[in-house]
Protein backbone atom coordinates (compact mmCIF):
# COMPACT_ATOMS: atom_id res chain seq x y z
CA UNK A 1 0.00 0.00 0.00
CA UNK A 2 1.17 3.51 -0.82
CA UNK A 3 -0.06 6.26 1.48
CA UNK A 4 0.13 9.93 0.46
CA UNK A 5 -0.42 13.08 2.50
CA UNK A 6 -0.59 16.46 0.82
CA UNK A 7 -0.35 19.95 2.25
CA UNK A 8 -0.55 23.17 0.27
CA UNK A 9 1.66 25.82 1.85
CA UNK A 10 1.87 29.54 1.16
CA UNK A 11 4.21 31.98 2.91
CA UNK A 12 1.44 33.05 5.28
CA UNK A 13 0.67 29.46 6.29
CA UNK A 14 4.17 28.01 6.55
CA UNK A 15 4.30 25.32 9.23
CA UNK A 16 0.52 24.84 9.29
CA UNK A 17 -0.86 21.37 8.66
CA UNK A 18 -4.57 22.21 8.67
CA UNK A 19 -6.27 21.12 5.49
CA UNK A 20 -3.92 18.18 4.91
CA UNK A 21 -5.35 15.68 2.42
CA UNK A 22 -4.68 11.94 2.37
CA UNK A 23 -4.99 9.18 -0.23
CA UNK A 24 -3.88 5.56 -0.48
CA UNK A 25 -3.78 2.75 -3.01
CA UNK A 26 -2.87 -0.94 -2.80
CA UNK A 27 0.54 -1.99 -4.16
CA UNK A 28 -0.97 -3.81 -7.12
CA UNK A 29 0.36 -3.50 -10.69
CA UNK A 30 -1.32 -0.59 -12.46
CA UNK A 31 -2.55 1.16 -9.30
CA UNK A 32 -2.24 4.93 -9.67
CA UNK A 33 -2.56 8.06 -7.54
CA UNK A 34 -2.48 11.49 -9.18
CA UNK A 35 -1.87 15.00 -7.82
CA UNK A 36 -3.01 18.13 -9.66
CA UNK A 37 -5.78 20.71 -10.10
CA UNK A 38 -8.27 18.43 -11.92
CA UNK A 39 -10.48 16.93 -9.21
CA UNK A 40 -12.05 14.50 -11.70
CA UNK A 41 -8.81 12.53 -12.18
CA UNK A 42 -6.62 13.51 -9.18
CA UNK A 43 -7.09 11.88 -5.78
CA UNK A 44 -5.20 14.80 -4.25
CA UNK A 45 -6.34 18.13 -5.70
CA UNK A 46 -4.68 21.50 -5.23
CA UNK A 47 -6.45 24.89 -5.27
CA UNK A 48 -7.86 25.75 -8.73
CA UNK A 49 -6.04 29.08 -8.85
CA UNK A 50 -2.59 27.58 -8.18
CA UNK A 51 -1.62 27.63 -11.85
CA UNK A 52 1.96 26.51 -11.19
CA UNK A 53 0.38 23.07 -10.72
CA UNK A 54 -0.74 21.34 -13.91
CA UNK A 55 -4.16 19.81 -14.34
CA UNK A 56 -2.42 16.48 -13.64
CA UNK A 57 1.03 17.28 -12.22
CA UNK A 58 2.34 14.17 -10.44
CA UNK A 59 1.52 10.53 -11.04
CA UNK A 60 2.39 7.75 -8.59
CA UNK A 61 2.25 4.42 -10.44
CA UNK A 62 2.68 0.87 -9.14
CA UNK A 63 4.74 -1.39 -11.38
CA UNK A 64 4.61 -5.16 -11.98
CA UNK A 65 6.61 -6.10 -8.85
CA UNK A 66 4.55 -3.93 -6.51
CA UNK A 67 7.11 -1.14 -6.52
CA UNK A 68 6.11 2.49 -6.94
CA UNK A 69 7.46 5.36 -9.01
CA UNK A 70 6.57 9.04 -9.25
CA UNK A 71 6.50 10.98 -12.52
CA UNK A 72 6.24 14.71 -13.18
CA UNK A 73 3.88 14.69 -16.14
CA UNK A 74 4.41 17.23 -18.89
CA UNK A 75 1.69 19.88 -18.96
CA UNK A 76 0.49 22.17 -21.72
CA UNK A 77 3.44 24.57 -21.34
CA UNK A 78 6.93 23.80 -22.73
CA UNK A 79 8.59 25.45 -19.72
CA UNK A 80 7.00 24.76 -16.31
CA UNK A 81 6.37 27.47 -13.71
CA UNK A 82 7.32 25.11 -10.90
CA UNK A 83 10.21 22.91 -9.83
CA UNK A 84 9.93 19.48 -8.25
CA UNK A 85 12.26 17.69 -5.84
CA UNK A 86 12.04 14.24 -4.25
CA UNK A 87 13.48 13.76 -0.76
CA UNK A 88 14.30 10.21 0.35
CA UNK A 89 16.40 9.44 3.41
CA UNK A 90 17.25 13.10 3.94
CA UNK A 91 18.66 13.44 0.42
CA UNK A 92 16.83 15.72 -2.05
CA UNK A 93 17.12 15.21 -5.78
CA UNK A 94 15.46 17.28 -8.49
CA UNK A 95 12.78 15.55 -10.54
CA UNK A 96 13.13 16.76 -14.14
CA UNK A 97 10.08 17.94 -16.10
CA UNK A 98 8.68 14.79 -17.69
CA UNK A 99 10.96 12.61 -15.54
CA UNK A 100 10.36 9.59 -13.31
CA UNK A 101 11.97 8.46 -10.04
CA UNK A 102 11.50 5.04 -8.39
CA UNK A 103 10.36 5.09 -4.76
CA UNK A 104 12.03 2.84 -2.20
CA UNK A 105 10.15 -0.34 -1.31
CA UNK A 106 8.97 -0.01 2.27
CA UNK A 107 10.36 3.54 2.45
CA UNK A 108 9.09 7.04 2.92
CA UNK A 109 9.90 10.54 1.77
CA UNK A 110 8.45 13.69 0.29
CA UNK A 111 7.84 15.24 -3.11
CA UNK A 112 7.89 19.04 -3.05
CA UNK A 113 6.49 21.16 -5.88
CA UNK A 114 7.63 24.80 -5.57
CA UNK A 115 6.15 27.75 -7.41
CA UNK A 116 8.92 29.64 -9.23
CA UNK A 117 7.03 32.95 -9.01
CA UNK A 118 5.68 33.03 -5.42
CA UNK A 119 6.54 31.62 -1.98
CA UNK A 120 4.20 28.62 -2.04
CA UNK A 121 4.51 24.88 -2.44
CA UNK A 122 2.67 21.59 -2.54
CA UNK A 123 4.25 19.02 -0.23
CA UNK A 124 3.32 15.37 -0.82
CA UNK A 125 4.62 12.92 1.75
CA UNK A 126 4.68 9.23 0.83
CA UNK A 127 4.96 6.00 2.79
CA UNK A 128 5.18 2.59 1.11
CA UNK A 129 3.81 0.00 3.48
CA UNK A 130 4.87 -3.57 2.65
Structural description of this entry:
The structure is a single chain. With 130 residues, the protein is mainly beta. The chain has no helices and eleven strands. Strands 2-1-11-10-7-8 form a six-stranded antiparallel β-sheet, with no helix packed on it. The N and C termini lie close together (7 Å). The model has no long low-confidence stretch (mean pLDDT 92).
Primary descriptors:
130 residues; mainly beta; six-stranded antiparallel β-sheet; five-stranded mixed β-sheet
* Helix content range: under 10%
Count of individual helical segments: 0
Distance between termini? 7 Å
Element string (H = helix, E = strand): EEEEEEEEEEE
Major sheet size, sense and barrel closure? 6 strands, antiparallel
Q: Which spans of ≥5 residues are poorly predicted at pLDDT below 50?
A: none
- Average pLDDT, rounded to a whole number, is 92
Judged by helices, strands and strand pairing, the structural class is mainly beta
Task: Report the oligomer.
Answer: single chain
Strand content: over 45%
Question: What overall geometry do the principal axes of the alpha carbons give?
Answer: globular
> What's the total number of strands?
11
Looking across the biggest beta sheet, what order are the strands in?
2-1-11-10-7-8
Evaluate the radius of gyration: 14 Å
Amino acid sequence: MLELTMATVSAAEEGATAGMLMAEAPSEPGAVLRVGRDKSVCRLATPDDWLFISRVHLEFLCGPEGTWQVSWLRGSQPDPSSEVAVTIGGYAQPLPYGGTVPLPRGGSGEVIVRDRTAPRSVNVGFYHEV
